[in-house]
Amino acid sequence: MQITFTREQEDLRAVLRGFLAENSDVRALIDGEGGHDPHLWRRMAGEIGVQGLAIPERYGGAGGTSAELCVVFEELGRTLAGGAMLGTIGMAVPALLASGTGGLQAELLSGIADGSLVAAVAVAESDGSWDLPRPATKACPATGSFLLEGAKYFVPDGMVADLFLVSAATPDGPALFAVLGDAAGLSRTAHATVDRTRGLARIDFASTPAWLLEMGTHALEEALDHGRAALAAEQAGGAQHCLEMAVEYAKSRHQFGRPIGSFQAIKHHAADMLVAVESARSAAYYASLAPQEDPSRLSIAATTAQVCCSQAYTHVAAETIQIHGGIGFTWEHDAHLYYKRAKSDEVLLGGPDWHRDRLARLIGIVEEDTDD
Amino acid sequence: MTDDETFRAALREFLDEYAPGKAPRGAAERLAFQKTWAATKFDHGFAGPSWPREHGGMDLPFTQQVIYNQEMARFRVPKHPGTGWEMVGPTLIEHGTSAQRERYLKPMLRGDEVWAQGFSEPDAGSDLPALRTTARRNGDHYVVAGQKVWNTNAEKADMCFILARTGTRESRQDGISYLLVDAHAPGVTIRPIRDMADREHFCEIHFDDVRVPVTDRVGEENRGWRIARSTLGHERSAGALTQAAFYRRIVDELIALARARGAHHDVGVRRRLADFDARVRVMGVHAARTIEAIAASGEPGPTSSISRLYNSTFEQELHEFAVDLLGPYGLLTKDDAETIQKGRWSTGWLATRASTIGAGTAEIQRNTIAEQVLGLPHDPAMPKR
Q1: Which domain holds residue A18?
Q2: What is the pLDDT of residues B339-365, one digit of tens each?
Q3: Are the beta carbons of B265 and A271 separated by less than 8 Å?
Q4: How many interchain CB pairs under 8 A, A with B?
Q5: Number of C-beta neighbours around residue B138 at 10 A
Q6: Which CATH superfamily includes the segment(s) B239-373?
Q7: How far apart, in Å, are the Cα atoms of B235 and each of A29, B88, B191, B330?
Q8: Residue of B nearest to A265 (CA)
Q9: Residues contacting B140, CB < 8 A, separation 6+
């Protein structure tokens, strides 16, 4: 197993880190709408080409791989400035690529690559579950297209998306559809959520026209696993940044006449945080890089990464608040933003126990079809 | 074929023909078995993957050291007898005199002479620089007096490598010398200590005015501390994949056991099993990252510093869970007629208590990580490092 990044990928990391340090403003983000900054979005497309990194060249992208995405999401995770990037390039792009090579896919991918399309994936419904088999949202065949009826919940970046990829049930079973943001009968309601760096929305469909991308759940499942790998990288990056904040604070904050970081009580917390951070990085790299050697590893690697990274990020973010003491509990300090993001990442694409159950099925601890 | 593939093929051919299979019962038989295997490797040019050829080693590039460890693990060959070849061996290669290298290295590698470490003392555990065993200079030899403890496999040892005080009582790490001591010399008494898992794997060693030639001092007098700290080398890093592969097998065996007993129908059980499975995968990635870091830059990188903490916690929790899983059967020893898998899980449950104590406690490791990797300030109440 190769777990290394190329020189070019490390260069990309450096460029993006510099760009985000200079241009991202998480404070403006949490006071704005849904954690998305349209101006930053266009600049990331125009100046760095982030949106097109893993889109094939024939659709106007750079033809990169999940390794580039891993670097991107690790850096975005550090700053909480990703906006709609997770939904758009983490999930919608792989969904479109996996669902076929039709004219519709080509057009949408080109739009994403040049930064003009923000895309969201809408799967969960009122029960909050990311399980795929039976969506309650209905797709009724109509002339030349389908009409959607139903509601999707917890749609990341639902308030700002120009394009939705929606799972819905047809008379012949579940399928994946593309719906434009300004389609008739589509309405959006923002969820008021604790994590203001990532906006979620409820999307209602009332006879909303939709284009069929693919029958079945294959493309969507693959896209969600790519999304989980991207999310894992984001979690690793966020955890790494938390650890850096905590260590810097422990070096500079003095009590009892010495830096608090010289006390073993703090050192042992910090050392355990490093174990968690490095484990999150290992898990995230595994999820992004192992499937390049062997695509059949994607599901196991992505689910493994979600088990490890969710736990690591939540732990590290909580310890970061603890090490900061009172100041860490204030609105003014950024620690709470990471703590909230850690928890919202944890539940976004299936929580740790959901993933443990899934891993148990994937590796044969229990048979695939057991529900007990 | 690439060089690596050619090497792997040659190694497999050797192992196919010579790997010795299952170990015999009984301590003496087992030692003889280990020594025979070490000699077989040596005589066929398959000993000491990282050692220079002039000392009987293979001088392999790092990628092939990794392959070497993988294949040896795959064939489940016996361990090298004693703790010499990956501890004092590299130290002698780096700091020894040519006479010391000539005298000791080949017999160590061939398993003809078994080595044991003598660092810890009853009053110098985590605070090793407080050690009190003395080596008094008397002409062309030292007179060594004191006690060492927790010396793995010392009852089998022919030679010991020890740290002894040659400076003043207060000199701490600036008054320690690194000595090679004949374990059969007059005045050396080695007693096994029974551990809580009912095994006799480690010992205490008493030195009662033992004469050690000055020519058996490694490095300068009072400069032994630094040499001891550089001992670890990269052998352990090359072995990192082996450890991950080892735990991979243990987790698979635990999953199979749980399924065989129908325990996997319990959602709590299967979540724990899945969690261990995820963690053992991450352990494999840690190892791969460590190995790639060494191959790329010569330095093992951050994953090597956290791996011991990660792995020791992992193996403790894994065995605790296995015992819970088996209920009352989990506490049966190998001597019970109803024992499960020869009591391996109860033995492992007890034995792994040492994982966070031996070779540096987990607390000392955390201090080291915090200061050396994260750069947190030294505790002013502690002695200088």
Answers
A1: 7-117
A2: 999 999 999 999 999 999 988 899 999
A3: no
A4: 141
A5: 11
A6: Butyryl-CoA Dehydrogenase, subunit A, domain 3 (1.20.140.10)
A7: 49, 12, 29, 35
A8: B367
A9: B213, B214, B215
- Beta-sheet pairing, A163-170 with A119-122: parallel
CB A238 within 8 A of CB A77: yes
CB < 8 Å to A278, chain B: 286, 302-303, 306
- Please pick, among B86, B204, B235, B315, the residue that the annotation labels catalytic: B235
Residue showing tokens 């009409």: A147
End-to-end CA distance of chain B: 49
Instruction: From first to last of the 372 residues of chain A, give the pLDDT tens digit.
Output: 678 899 999 999 999 999 999 999 899 888 877 788 999 999 999 999 999 999 999 999 999 999 999 999 999 999 999 889 999 999 999 999 999 888 899 999 999 999 999 999 999 999 988 877 789 999 999 988 999 999 999 999 999 999 999 999 999 999 999 999 999 999 999 999 999 999 999 999 999 999 999 999 999 999 999 999 999 999 999 999 999 999 999 999 999 999 999 999 999 999 999 999 999 999 999 999 988 888 889 999 999 999 999 999 999 999 999 999 999 999 999 999 999 999 999 999 999 999 999 999 999 999 876 554
Indicate yes or no: CB of B376 within 8 angstroms of CB of A307.
no
Contact assessment for residue B77 and residue B199, using Cβ atoms and an 8 Å cutoff: no
CB neighbour list of residue B27: distance below 8 Å, 6 or more residues apart: none
Q: Check: CATH 2.102.10.10 for B115-222?
A: no
Domain chopping of chain B, boundaries = 4-110, 115-222, 239-373
- Establish if A130 belongs to a structural domain: yes
Is A369 inside a domain boundary? no
Contact between B292 and A2 using a beta-carbon 8 Å cutoff? yes
Contact: A268, B309; criterion CB under 8 Å: no
Q: Is A275 on the interface with B (CB under 8 A)?
A: yes
* Distance of alpha carbon B108 from alpha carbon B110, whole angstroms: 6
Enclosing H/E stretch for A208:
strand A200-215
Query: Regarding beta strands A258-259 and A163-170, do their DSSP bridges make them parallel or antiparallel, or are they unpaired?
Result: unpaired
Query: Please, are residues A119 and A165 in contact by the beta-carbon 8 Å criterion?
Result: yes
Question: SS3 for chain B, per residue?
Answer: CCHHHHHHHHHHHHHHHHCCCCCCCCHHHHHHHHHHHHHHHHHCCCCCCCCCHHHCCCCCCHHHHHHHHHHHHHCCCCCCCCCCCCCHHHHHHHHCCHHHHHHHHHHHHHCCCCEEEECCECCECCCHHHCCCEEEEECCEEEEEEEEEEEECHHHCCEEEEEEECCCCCCHHHHEEEEEEECCCCCEEEEEECCCCCCCCEEEEEEEEEEEEHHHEECCCCEHHHHHHCCCCCHHHHCHHHHHHHHHHHHHHHHHHHHHCCHHHCHHHHHHHHHHHHHHHHHHHHHHHHHHHHHHHCCCCHHHHHHHHHHHHHHHHHHHHHHHHHHHHHHCCCCCCCCCHHHHHHHHHHHHHHHHCCCCCHHHHHHHHHHHHCCCCCCCCCCCC
Contact: B309, A353; criterion CB under 8 Å:
no
Q: Do B366 and A279 touch (CB under 8 A)?
A: no
Tell me the β-bridge partners of B138.
B141
DSSP 8-state code for residue A329: G
pTM of the predicted model as reported, rounded to 2 decimal places: 0.94
Could you tell me the CA-to-CA distances from B348 to A186, B200, B328 in Å, in that order?
Answer: 60, 15, 16
Query: Chain A: nearest CA to B319, how far in angstroms?
Result: 18
Beta bridge partners of A151: A204
Active site residue B235: yes
Co-location of A106 and A239 in the same domain: no
Phi, psi for residue B172 in degrees, rounded to 5: 45, -130
Q: Is B263 on the interface with A (CB under 8 A)?
A: no
Q: Of the candidates A247, A271, A308, which has its C-beta nearest B278's C-beta?
A: A308
Looking at the structure, tell me whether residues A100 and A171 fall in a common domain.
no
